[in-house]
């Protein structure tokens, strides 16, 4: 894939307030191929005109992406697109140090450090994996269950059951949905049942305090308290196709009426629905 020049995506927002830590969102849209990025103070920009196979965004706006015909790349404001490997990753992730995580069929899961050196984290290719802002990883393996790893340390076994969906945050927090078995939170060897009901796929997020946001279709989005508390409250009466926590507990959602950010009040980032979003996680 050729490096793409940044171009402005027409439906921009105006008059955005300045923030110490901006919200960063990457998205794809059915009507416009490529990767688009939103950062506070800049608005929406097209980073690439080629549809990605997988993509992720860091809280500083750096983007990792794989392209079926072009390999695995890292985009930063300083360097633009940089090729990591000609092999196209099945899935990518990125942390707040711009380290890219990528899985490859038959080769396992790798982490590309800032000098582009690739470290193999496991020779087994995960079915799915998630990356936290501090470089923690949660990964599911078919027939083996769910595991986590904090910043390149040893893998920790969480459960022999494979989740339908899961999310990871700093300090080893993992939230996972197991269908009819319900929604659970894992942390430092503790396991908590948050609810016997399973959230919708993609509608699950967890922050650094262990607070979990989950979408339950027609009844809306609920937040479960962090720490040892499992109390829940409804925060939105709408169905979210995807959810993610940004910095300072800001919740970003992709809805059938656009992309919004919530933190006590609602802020519309775009009046269009994305096919997929990725949110820069708090660190």
- Mean pLDDT across all amino acids: 90
Structural class: mainly beta
- The structural domain count equals 2
- State Rg: 18 Å
Strand arrangement within the widest β-sheet reads 1-4-3-2-29
Helix and strand run? EEEEEEEEEEEEEEEEEEEEEEEEEEEEE
The number of helices is: 0
Low-pLDDT windows of residues? 1-19
Q: Let me know the number of strands.
A: 29
Question: TL;DR?
Answer:
By secondary structure, the chain is mainly beta. It has strands spanning 7-8, 24-29, 32-39, 43-48, 54-57, 63-67, 71-76, 80-85, 91-94, 100-104, 108-112, 118-122, 128-131, 137-141, 145-149, 155-159, 165-168, 174-177, 183-187, 190-195, 204-206, 212-215, 221-224, 232-236, 242-245, 251-255, 258-262, 266-270, 276-279.
Question: Keywords, please?
Answer:
283 residues; mainly beta; Neuraminidase; 2 domains; 5-stranded antiparallel beta sheet; 4-stranded antiparallel beta sheet; disordered N terminus
């Amino acid at each position: 894939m050729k490096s793409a020049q940044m171009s402005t995506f027409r439906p921009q927002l105006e008059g955005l307030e300045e923030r110490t830590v901006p919200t960063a969102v990457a998205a794809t849209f059915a009507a416009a191929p490529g990767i688009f990025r939103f950062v506070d103070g800049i608005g929406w920009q097209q980073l690439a005109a080629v549809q990605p196979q997988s993509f992720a965004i860091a809280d500083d706006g750096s983007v990792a992406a794989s392209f079926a015909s072009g390999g695995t790349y890292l985009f930063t404001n300083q360097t633009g697109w940089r090729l990591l490997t000609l092999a196209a990753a099945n899935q990518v992730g990125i942390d707040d140090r711009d380290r890219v995580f990528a899985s490859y069929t038959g080769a396992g899961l790798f982490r590309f450090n800032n000098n582009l050196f690739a470290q193999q984290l496991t020779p087994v290719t995960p079915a799915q994996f998630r990356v936290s802002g501090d470089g923690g990883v949660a990964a599911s393996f078919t027939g083996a269950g769910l595991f986590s790893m904090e910043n390149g340390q040893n893998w920790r076994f969480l459960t022999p059951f494979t989740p339908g969906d899961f999310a990871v945050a700093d300090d080893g927090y993992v939230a996972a949905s197991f269908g009819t078995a319900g929604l659970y939170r894992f942390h430092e060897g503790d396991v908590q049942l948050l609810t016997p009901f399973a959230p919708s796929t993609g509608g699950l997020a967890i922050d650094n305090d262990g607070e979990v946001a989950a979408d339950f279709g027609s009844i809306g989005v609920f937040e479960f308290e962090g720490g040892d508390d499992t109390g829940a409250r409804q925060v939105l009466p709408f169905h979210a196709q995807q959810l993610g926590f940004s910095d300072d507990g800001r919740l970003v959602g992709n809805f059938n009426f656009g992309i919004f950010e919530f933190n006590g009040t609602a802020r519309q980032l775009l009046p269009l629905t994305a096919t997929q979003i990725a949110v820069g996680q708090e660190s």
